[in-house]
Amino acid sequence: MTPTTTIVPVALGERSYEVVIQAGLLDRAGEALAPFATSRPFLVITDAHVGPAQWPRLQASLERAGLAAELVTLPAGESTKSWQQLEALTDRMIEHGIERRDHVIALGGGVIGDLVGFAAAIVKRGCNFIQIPTTLLAQVDSSVGGKTAINSRAGKNLLGAFHQPSLVLIDPDTLDTLGPREVRAGYAEVVKYGLIDDLAFFDYCEANGPALLAGKAEARAYAIAKSVAAKAAIVAEDERETSGRRALLNLGHTFGHALEAETGFSDKLLHGEAVAAGMALAFGYSVRRGECSGQDVGRVVAHLRASGLPASLADAGVRASGARLVEHMLHDKKMSAGTLPFLLARGIGQTYLAKDVDLADVAAFLDETSD
Ligand SMILES: NC(=O)c1ccc[n+]([C@@H]2O[C@H](COP(=O)([O-])OP(=O)(O)OC[C@H]3O[C@@H](n4cnc5c(N)ncnc54)[C@H](O)[C@@H]3O)[C@@H](O)[C@H]2O)c1
Ligand SMILES: O=C(O)C(=O)C[C@@H](O)[C@H](O)[C@H](O)COP(=O)(O)O
Ligand SMILES: [Zn+2]
């Protein structure tokens, strides 16, 4: 029996592409990749954890389809989104003789996807890439939408480009080899879609989060398809985050990126964990402004904690002063004419972009917030 296939189109005119979601898809990826093959072998870029776990499946599938490929394995972890790794990867692509029409393949989580996408954006002023995301976070968020980046010393994703993939292949079964902490971190970005504008989906998360985190196929497939559809719709409306619509996807990220900067982009705090704490802080700050009920923030915090995610500075293990965290925030890419707009909420599913936030007040809130 053929497994259920969900295809989500990302409608971006000549940059349009499909996100294909199907259990076991990695074993059939060769067929899907065949139309993108050229005379050169595909370069497949992965990391030291994903390679041993998932490359044999992709390799066998490529071989069955008669397609040649060479594997490039980079170190695992956030520190791979660096100048050093970008240089090594772009050198390797050029040495491979890559042409603009060629596709490189990102097989991995958000780190590999963001780095490979950025390399593809700049080599020969732009060649093509395909995303095969292998973490929950990458399947529900980072593989779709074309934000690519590395980190700079000053902050998160400060060097990058908008560069859309040509195809995204999602096999939820690849999550079977992912560690539980990484699954939970990805789940934070799932919950984000409910908090942004979909109360019914947040209700679904409260009821089905435990099944999803336990790897139940039905909950996993539903949450991935729902999240990808939500992201694709927003990206199609505002590809380059100019109208304010795409900025909604940044809920929890201004706080979250500051926490990641404070913990040195290390394994101490994963991106999804930082976003979880950041979303709880955004809701907490919305309560302080009298815009959101204490009951709603209570639900958000309770669900994040029940899912094993941090929902406060203390949970995230961050002790920095409010002023120091606000200093990190000054590098946020939403900063405009000296003002930093914040994603705040009038309730669950009612996120909006607030343009009147006083950073001194944010610092005071962070100093006062204890749990
Ligand atoms: N471009 C975007 O729109 C966007 C969106 C969200 C997050 N991001 C970025 O994504 C990054 C985080 O991505 P992530 O959470 O996927 O982290 P990650 O890529 O570091 O993966 C997490 C860990 O899981 C391992 N791993 C991945 N897939 C595996 C598998 N199937 N089996 C076993 N191990 C596996 C990796 O080696 C790594 O150790 C951050 O840098 C964040 O900024 C980008
Ligand atoms: O796709 C988007 O737009 C997002 O904001 C998704 C976020 O989950 C993601 O972490 C993104 O990389 C953050 O973007 P940035 O512009 O704040 O670096
Ligand atoms: Zn994110």
UniProtKB/TrEMBL annotation:
Binding of Zn(2+) occurs at: E189, H253, H271
Could you give a single Gene Ontology term from the biological process aspect? amino acid biosynthetic process
Residue ranges of domain 3-dehydroquinate synthase C-terminal in the record: 186-335
Recall the GO molecular function terms of this protein's record.
3-dehydroquinate synthase activity; metal ion binding; nucleotide binding
Q: Where in the cell is it found?
A: Cytoplasm
User: Pfam families from the entry?
Assistant: DHQ_synthase (PF01761), DHQS_C (PF24621)
Which CDD domains does this entry report, sorted A to Z? Answer: DHQS
State which Enzyme Commission number(s) the record gives. 4.2.3.4
Identify the residues that bind NAD(+): G110, V111, I112, G113, D114, T134, T135, K147, K156, T174, L175, D176, T177
Give the 3-dehydroquinate synthase N-terminal domain ranges.
Answer: 72-184
This entry carries the following GO cellular component terms, namely:
cytoplasm
Q: Is Nucleotide-binding one of the keywords?
A: yes
Name the enzyme group at the top EC level.
Answer: lyase
Q: Which reaction does it catalyse?
A: 7-phospho-2-dehydro-3-deoxy-D-arabino-heptonate = 3-dehydroquinate + phosphate
What cofactor does its activity depend on? NAD(+); Zn(2+); Co(2+)
This protein's pathway reads: Metabolic intermediate biosynthesis; chorismate biosynthesis; chorismate from D-erythrose 4-phosphate and phosphoenolpyruvate: step 2/7
Q: Which UniProt keywords apply?
A: Amino-acid biosynthesis, Aromatic amino acid biosynthesis, Cobalt, Cytoplasm, Lyase, Metal-binding, NAD, Nucleotide-binding, Zinc
* HAMAP family cross-referenced by the UniProt entry: DHQ_synthase (MF_00110)
What family classification does the UniProt entry report for this protein? Belongs to the sugar phosphate cyclases superfamily. Dehydroquinate synthase family.
Functional note: Catalyzes the conversion of 3-deoxy-D-arabino-heptulosonate 7-phosphate (DAHP) to dehydroquinate (DHQ).
Q: What is this protein called?
A: 3-dehydroquinate synthase
> Which organism is this protein's natural source?
Sphingobium nicotianae
Lineage, highest ranks first? Bacteria, Pseudomonadati, Pseudomonadota, Alphaproteobacteria, Sphingomonadales
Q: Gene of origin?
A: aroB
